[in-house]
């Protein structure tokens, strides 16, 4: 009888990486079909392992067992389960025999023909064709490539195969807009997974050449589904798909082996898109990812769902916008298409709901090569995405303005000035605004690092002095990160600053200082006046200049958003033109059926000096 030595056996050989994707998928499915699967999940940090398999009677077993338990106990338990399953199947067969037949009689069993009680099935675990001793611990017994035998049925043991822990299609799909499944993997990598998209066949439609269900997926009836030919994670429905549901067949992988496949169908059919969107013309300038020397940067307030779906928003802020166009599922289709179409290297977003980040933005942008980090504020927050082929994340240095001002010695001098104005101090410290700071390193040149800051300053029109103080805290913190923690790295500072070019905040950023007698120190009246002179270290400019507006709603339009860059290290290669005034006002104002936010994205290509 074979026993494991102290050194655990190596995992089985991996499939050749050079196989074509379709051949690899066929091999994965064929391997699964040759022998039943017994999937084992065994993680060193957890006390139990799980064992999952299907018995001959069709019942599915999912067992949780201690890793330190002897194998014999598990095999005994499996035998008991198999015996119970056999008994249930026999009882069901007998019940069927005693049902009334078509002539009104009863199909009863022949007397004396009752089946004898089935013996307990032989249950064994084999590794390399030798039985594993029953005193071997579970953690060592259940090796990848072992064979579990239950009676006459054999199961191939797959230990920690790539597995989907979450797989979901979006609820709302439109023609012309990319559909990207949300997926989470254990022991796998999205880049190593295999995908096949199907669509419903229209009644009476001829099956397209090469269409029909894949031979890898016999559960797809040829009369109901046809293969689209798309074998990537993202599928963009065409107008021909309107009214049809979609189906996705996916096999989890990690570039070396594959796990159990899964299939899922869309809840609703593909709907018609809104026609031309405000960003369609802009995408003509961003068809490809930029070369390594450039950094395409996007800053965009995407309008949080928590604000868009209120009664106040529907009736007062955006009464001109069709109610369905304010719904999160609709707007996320537009946001995903807009963002992915920019082929950006850096994307800084404001007003990002936590669920929108995890359920919508991460899956969609991940499929296009970007990775993201999130910083919550209260009901929404900030997100920064970066292209993985160009950058890696070295560190995150986010702060809350209120917490930093009160507790960080870096801002001691500013706080001492503010203390002289108790009413203003109280208002400043009530604000929940945050600053997201990510330090990135070039994957092509490790000497090139960059500090990417992202914020959303206080919104109130009379909050000018609050925004000045928030910006002073932000710039002091960014200086600490870019000069002390990572000496000499350049800065890109994106955000919705809620300040037009005529305000003190903008003057402070561009000029490097602001006098104590500036009118914005009394932006909310004399009672809250807080005169102080401020200065900062950087030489910054607005990469996209001063557009007529970046926010356009029924009662206001103005430039509130900027991408500030470090002039000592970066220069502007090109600015992607904003939508025309005609495009913005086609449906009166923003948001609309063709634009998902009340803000407009800023997009520019930056260049290292």
From TrEMBL:
<dbReference type="GO" id="GO:0000288">
    <property type="term" value="P:nuclear-transcribed mRNA catabolic process, deadenylation-dependent decay"/>
</dbReference>
<dbReference type="GO" id="GO:0044528">
    <property type="term" value="P:regulation of mitochondrial mRNA stability"/>
</dbReference>
<dbReference type="GO" id="GO:0140374">
    <property type="term" value="P:antiviral innate immune response"/>
</dbReference>
<keyword id="KW-0479">Metal-binding</keyword>
<protein>
    <recommendedName>
        <fullName>2',5'-phosphodiesterase 12</fullName>
        <ecNumber>3.1.13.4</ecNumber>
    </recommendedName>
</protein>
<dbReference type="InterPro" id="IPR048821">
    <property type="entry name" value="PDE12-like_N"/>
</dbReference>
<dbReference type="GO" id="GO:0071346">
    <property type="term" value="P:cellular response to type II interferon"/>
</dbReference>
<dbReference type="GO" id="GO:0006397">
    <property type="term" value="P:mRNA processing"/>
</dbReference>
<feature type="region of interest" description="Disordered">
    <location>
        <begin position="89"/>
        <end position="116"/>
    </location>
</feature>
<dbReference type="GO" id="GO:0035457">
    <property type="term" value="P:cellular response to interferon-alpha"/>
</dbReference>
<feature type="region of interest" description="Disordered">
    <location>
        <begin position="204"/>
        <end position="228"/>
    </location>
</feature>
<keyword id="KW-0809">Transit peptide</keyword>
<dbReference type="GO" id="GO:0071359">
    <property type="term" value="P:cellular response to dsRNA"/>
</dbReference>
<dbReference type="GO" id="GO:0004535">
    <property type="term" value="F:poly(A)-specific ribonuclease activity"/>
</dbReference>
<dbReference type="InterPro" id="IPR050410">
    <property type="entry name" value="CCR4/nocturin_mRNA_transcr"/>
</dbReference>
<feature type="domain" description="2',5'-phosphodiesterase 12-like N-terminal">
    <location>
        <begin position="161"/>
        <end position="271"/>
    </location>
</feature>
<keyword id="KW-0378">Hydrolase</keyword>
<keyword id="KW-0496">Mitochondrion</keyword>
<dbReference type="InterPro" id="IPR036691">
    <property type="entry name" value="Endo/exonu/phosph_ase_sf"/>
</dbReference>
<keyword id="KW-0597">Phosphoprotein</keyword>
<feature type="compositionally biased region" description="Basic residues">
    <location>
        <begin position="89"/>
        <end position="99"/>
    </location>
</feature>
<dbReference type="Pfam" id="PF21171">
    <property type="entry name" value="PDE12-like_N"/>
</dbReference>
<comment type="function">
    <text>Enzyme that cleaves 2',5'-phosphodiester bond linking adenosines of the 5'-triphosphorylated oligoadenylates, triphosphorylated oligoadenylates referred as 2-5A modulates the 2-5A system. Degrades triphosphorylated 2-5A to produce AMP and ATP. Also cleaves 3',5'-phosphodiester bond of oligoadenylates. Plays a role as a negative regulator of the 2-5A system that is one of the major pathways for antiviral and antitumor functions induced by interferons (IFNs). Suppression of this enzyme increases cellular 2-5A levels and decreases viral replication in cultured small-airway epithelial cells.</text>
</comment>
<dbReference type="GO" id="GO:0000958">
    <property type="term" value="P:mitochondrial mRNA catabolic process"/>
</dbReference>
<dbReference type="GO" id="GO:0045070">
    <property type="term" value="P:positive regulation of viral genome replication"/>
</dbReference>
<dbReference type="GO" id="GO:0046872">
    <property type="term" value="F:metal ion binding"/>
</dbReference>
<feature type="compositionally biased region" description="Low complexity">
    <location>
        <begin position="204"/>
        <end position="223"/>
    </location>
</feature>
<dbReference type="GO" id="GO:0005759">
    <property type="term" value="C:mitochondrial matrix"/>
</dbReference>
<keyword id="KW-0460">Magnesium</keyword>
<keyword id="KW-0540">Nuclease</keyword>
<dbReference type="Pfam" id="PF03372">
    <property type="entry name" value="Exo_endo_phos"/>
</dbReference>
<keyword id="KW-0269">Exonuclease</keyword>
<comment type="similarity">
    <text>Belongs to the CCR4/nocturin family.</text>
</comment>
<feature type="domain" description="Endonuclease/exonuclease/phosphatase">
    <location>
        <begin position="299"/>
        <end position="599"/>
    </location>
</feature>
<keyword id="KW-0507">mRNA processing</keyword>
<dbReference type="InterPro" id="IPR005135">
    <property type="entry name" value="Endo/exonuclease/phosphatase"/>
</dbReference>
